[in-house]
Amino acid sequence: MSLLVVGLSHRSAPVSVLERAALGADAQIKLVQDTVAAEPATEAAVLATCNRIELYADVDKFHAGVAELSTLLAQHSGVGLDELTPYLYVHYEDRAVHHLFSVACGLDSMVVGEGQILGQIKDSLAKAQELHSAGRLMNDLFQQGLRVGKRAHSETGIDRAGQSLVTFGLEQLAAGGDVQSWAKGKKALVIGAGSMSSLAAATLARAGVTEIVVANRTPDRAERLAQILNEGDDTHVTARAVPMDSVPGELTRADIAVSCTGATGLVLTAEVIAAAIEGRTGAPVAEIDADLPATPKPLPATSLGTDENCPLDLTAAQSGFSVMGEAAVAGMAAAELEQHAAWVDNGTVDIRETGRRTAETLEAAVEAEAELIGALARAAARVGRIPERRRPEPVAGFVRPAPALFLLDLAMPRDIDAAVHRLAGVRLVDIESLAEASADAPMAADVDQVRRIVSDEVAAFGAAQRAAHITPTVVALRTMAADVVAGEIARLDGRLPDLDEHQRGEIRQAVHRVVDKLLHAPTVRVKQLAAEPGGAGYADALRTLFDLDPETVAAVSRAVDSTDKKDRPA
Fold it and tell me: Of 113, 162, 207, 303, which sits with the fewest C-beta atoms within 10 Å of its C-beta?
């Protein structure tokens, strides 16, 4: 059996795809259960965070395993396999181990070095153990990953490079300024009472906010978090809990709102936020677009947009944009862009549907769009995919109004409507904003040291796993030798009945010493060889040379696994 991981993260997929593929708690459980029920897999675990979804499994066939795990991810995420596949990554054997250890150390996090991932890995292992989907490999892998992550944080300065998403998000809200100076004296609303929301509340309390209001669908959890905040010795914050239906009213009082729930739909719509700002200022909220200087309009749609042979899904095109322009092709791969550019370039124009526009104008528009899409295709060939554009680009000379309300959305899928970005008087930082900001964040010098730790630990883990793989074979060999010795001693007792007990003991010890000396060097050496890369074949060679019964070896392996499970903490 071999370790395989199939997943997607902020490094491989746009946030819009991660958001749609996000798995709720029930979906994660069902995914694990269906994975171990599938033919290629015997063990499984899911690691799902706000910026990654990864399925780990112990499989007996690589290609079948990749196909099965990819299909299951698509089924349970609700994103079609064809759409999901371009964003998936696959790691196998040592590369899969290297990936998890890197994740555990925070090297693959949106904010490099953040330590929250260790708790998420621990939760993932606990869930797999609860579902009985974690056997020897998953337990060893995730437990060692936790140890490697702790080692990286204790032996290096990676903590100086990294911070939690909460801290990083608050820094973005403060526009790069000092968070404590920015937060001091403000009032905060925290929506949700899970681990991320609790961390946000504690961080805000330490930063100097004067009041924190906690809203949660389960009132008891909100009350408990508020009580913890009130009893904190290192803060002077007043905290209270409110029901979820009080959130709109509390928004009119709050300066900062942090939301991180497990809701599948929006918790705060643009209309609710606009109403809150109007309640604070007494004036209607304008959209940023209305205040922007005039910008070039997109090319208008032509009759080509209704052609049934168009390779685009025209029903998904945004209203007001050309179905052949940049907005329509955002997110497409290079091959699709080239196909679409060829369609535009070779298209025909139906003059009867153009109204007052002339054929020359339409043909010029078609040529311009073909050139644009061709350029996008060349760019996509270099960088992968054209990014999806959610917000308008900044316009030179335009100054955004000072925010009256600061919003931090740490949920996946998002809690706060992305349209809030367009509202004047609001600053929204969400997972997508954090991904963009973290791409420019400097890497700490300690990252190289952490990478060396990961490489060393991957090698040690691989050696230990390979050595463990041959242990049942060695045990079976020694068991067979012991049976041979016992049989020969019994035969000797029958042929020499006059021997006294002392003589029999001396003979037994002599035979055992001979067998032990003959087996010592081969068994020690075969364990050393098996621990090296490519050493898995030595177990097969040992079974063949000594004619060991495969079922006997398998029985030893099952007995070892059973003992390990009893010794492992729940």
Answer: 303
Burial of 525 (0-12, 13-18, 19+ CB in 10 A): exposed
Cβ contact 428:449 at 8 Å: no
> Which one-letter amino acid corresponds to residue 392?
P
Total count of residues recorded for the chain? 570
Across 331-489, the runs of DSSP E, i.e. the strands, are: 405-409, 426-429
Cβ-based burial of 231 (10 A; exposed 0-12, middle 13-18, buried ≥19): exposed
CA quadruple 530, 531, 534, 536: dihedral sign: positive
Q: Per-residue DSSP letters for 344-355?
A: HHT----GGGST
Q: Is 431 in contact with 414 (CB distance < 8 Å)?
A: yes
Exposed (0-12), middle (13-18) or buried (19+): which is 329, by Cβ within 10 Å? buried
pTM: 0.61
| Alpha carbon distance 544, 6 (integer Å) | 35
Amino acid letter, residue 450: V
| 6 token code pair | 């199939």
Number of H helices, E strands in the chain: 23, 10
50 given a catalytic annotation: yes
State residue 392's pLDDT score.
45
470 contacts 542 by C-beta, under 8 angstroms: yes
Give yes or no for a contact between 366 and 344, defined as CB atoms under 8 angstroms apart: yes
Q: What is the pLDDT of residues 424-469, one digit of tens each?
A: 889 999 988 887 777 655 555 678 889 999 999 998 898 887 777 7
The answer, yes or no, to whether residue 134 has pLDDT greater than 60, is yes
